[in-house]
Amino acid sequence: MKKTKVMAFACLSLLAYLNQAGATIPNTDHPTTFLGPALRLGFSNYMNDTTAYALAAELGIRNYRLDGTFGWQITYNQRVKLTAEYLRQDITYAFFDGNSDQWVHQGAIGAEYEHDFNDYLLNPQFTLGAYLSHAPSKTLRTDLGTYTNADGIMQPFRELKRIAGSNAGGLSPGVSFSAWPGAKINAELNYDKVHYDTEYVDSENPTGFGGTVSVHQAITDDFGVRLLAAIRQPFNNYQANFTLGNVPFYGKWAFGFNTAYTVGKNALPSTYIVGISADYFMEQISESPYTHTDGIDRYISARDNVDFKGVSSLSQQAERQDFLSWVSRPAVYMPQVLAIADSRVSCQDGEAPTALNSTLPPDFNTTELSGINLANNFTGSNLTFAVVSVTPDPQFFPSDFVNMTANGTLTYDASTAVNDDRQYFATISAANTCGVAYSSITLGPIPE
Question: Signal peptide span per the entry (predicted)?
């Protein structure tokens, strides 16, 4: 047993080492996070004849969501609902030195209005939705390391890391209609405006129009399929949902199997999730996508021995079922926390040096030994100075004819230069682990 534990520990250590060794810097990965299987539990109930509420909790390995919805039936063909949502997810972000899993969270509120034109062909409905969301930023640690640059040189670096949260909002007018028996098609025009709270990189703020199309097909009175595709500015989102309703167990239940895939844009990571849902309703819920009198007319026509006196009560029941089912679907459901990686990479010496002047004023000095402090001409820290070249080559003079001290002071033997009666052009370098910068200066006697 002890040998088995030792073997298992060794294997895990080897896998961790190989994973770390296989990571390349700079990291060019675009990770997609599996948020894990999730369970969504919901409860919906009437408050009175015209208002209802719904509560839901979504629990997963890397995904937690809470939302509450309040709905109001304004008239027989108009209704509105409001939703508040809290979302927390563990998403993989790509940084310069590798990927990092980070818990991020977001709050959102949304509203949706629906007007039912049930007297028209195909039972069209007009919808208007809106949302606001906020995801706070998060400061991460600063990492130090080395990597091989494009020139094949090992270079140390420092990476400042954070997660940039966002403030976002949007509008989504749409229409839905019953195109064929058992089907409901919905089309929306989406306008999104997202502002990412970046500090280190240029802000990538997706703003503009997109679109969403969904199809809900009732296979039976109790079983339905819904497919959705959304092409929007912050992301693309694809969903498939399968729902079985009217399951009796101390009330009526609806069970579902749900999948979603979100393709992030503008540095937003991608995610996908699968899950099951269980919703409890205080009243019987049908999976038929028809609403209001259109749905009850088809319900009645499919059954024998129903007299006209029953239309009012059955119609009322269908109205209540449809309204409660509508309230159970939140007015805002953000597929992902809108937050992106935000980092700045520099070498360990801070920044690469720069020369304030590529050519320095000439120094004409006829005294014995002249010293010029050139350090102030360069920016950067931990600089090392050197004389790169002197033109023309002073091959007949001592090696210290032109020299640099550790603190950036250039020295040259002015008297020797006077005797030589020539001017010299010296190129100076200032370097640290981040890079190198050059400047030049003319030395020698005063020109005649």
Answer: 1-23
